[in-house]
Amino acid sequence: MTAFQKIARAQSAVIFICADCGRQHNSQTADVPKGWALIAMDCSGSPFVRCPDCASSVAQAQHDRMTDYMTTMHPPQADQWRRLSLQEHTALSLLADRAQGMTWEIARACGYISGRRCLPQVRNMLRRLERWGYVHHAKTPDGYYATYSITDAGRRAVQP
Length: 160
What we know:
The chain is α+β, with helices and mostly antiparallel strands.
């Protein structure tokens, strides 16, 4: 290697040009500068890059488009009045008459017993009522059957 080639190699800089605004950045290495986003590489290996300002504005525009799409396609709705099914109303009425009830008692009242077993629908129904705030779940001392008690919101839901 000649002395001229050594000097040229030592002084050669890589120039990164923003694909959006044309801003230039000189670098001694071929690594993409910090904060710059690599968009793609062309067939010759030259990088298409985006400067930090353009990258943040593109990211914000993408976020705005996504938020706008979600708002127009799925507008936020007020909490709708929950319509109770017959089984849910029966379970809440049973709990309103008593202080508390066990899972199998509620299942028997709602018709969710198959043979001697509680069907999974009763657990799903009780979890849904608990999520809505109509019942409160507590374990019995033996831990096998769960007990449920009605809340004030549950009492209001079944009042005539």
